[in-house]
Amino acid sequence: MSETVDGETADGETVWIAPVETRDLPRVAEWLSRKANYQWLHFGPGRQTLDEVSLKFMLQRDLHLLRTFGPGHLDEPVGLVALSDLDRDFGTAALWYVLGDKRFGGRGHTTRAAARLLHGAFEELELESVYAWTVETNRPSRRLLARLGFRRAGRRRRCHRIDGVVYDRLLYDLLADEFEGVRTREAGPRSAAAPESVPSPVETGSVR
Amino acid sequence: MIERRVEEIFLTELRVEVPDRDTDVIDTGLVDSLTLVQLLSILEREFEVRIDLEELDLDDFRSVSSIADLLERRADAA
After folding, report:
1. What is the mean pLDDT of residues A168-173?
2. Which chain B positions have a beta carbon within 8 Å of A20's beta carbon?
3. I want to staple A6 with a disulfide (CB 3.0 to 4.6 A). Which of A115, B2, B5, B34 is the partner?
4. Mean pLDDT (whole number) for A59-84
5. Residue burial A98-137, b: 16+ Cβ < 10 Å; e: rest
6. Choosing among A57, A65, A86, which should be mutated to test the B contact, i.e. which has the most B CBs within 10 A?
7. Inter-chain touch A54–B57, beta carbons under 8 Å
């Protein structure tokens, strides 16, 4: 069976992505205010959360592309995928993501949503390279990045702190042609191609 | 008067020296999205105004002049 990374989820469900609107901001800010999510994030010195006002300003800047996503059968979003630090001259951006509704964890929704965002970024914005980072212990996020074709570009040592414990961050990047290869590859039987069937407590990545 | 106070806020509270009242502080990179949040909070406190999320327009915060215009409109509407 053929499966593409931006096609259906592991259980055969489609995923939609949509521009974040003002009415979405309280919900998105609430997701980002939860420790289960913000512990993996970093928006600059002393900042691990984003409130509604920050998000509203971000929506109006061309440095960011924020999209909510959800499974095809739901109108309500369950998470956020985003590109930040968009540099249209250099063709680069940073990918980050949050699964807000953890009941949808482990189903591949975040991966599919991120893939759709990346597809648009590479095709329409003609980006050359997208980078990401994740904390070394965030296995769901590592799996997600691997599934999208991201390659390890390095390790930033002892730069992330969770509950007083210092961790490394793993750095990744993805080029347009590498993503296209992943997007269209033959993935084999769906059951064998669903590493995210392992329940994931959080699927959160990188932010600036 | 308002412009001068806004300039002071940039300098003393945000530690940002704005070269000109019409300088675009966003495009020039003098302030980022997170600093804008801090600025909004200060403006709301200092000028006793409230700007709702729906009304929040980035263009109102691009320069000392545009911020002063926003505050004057708010004062007139009050």
Report:
1. 98
2. none
3. A115
4. 96
5. bbbbbebbbbbbbbbbbbbbbbbbbeeeebebbbbbbbee
6. A57
7. no
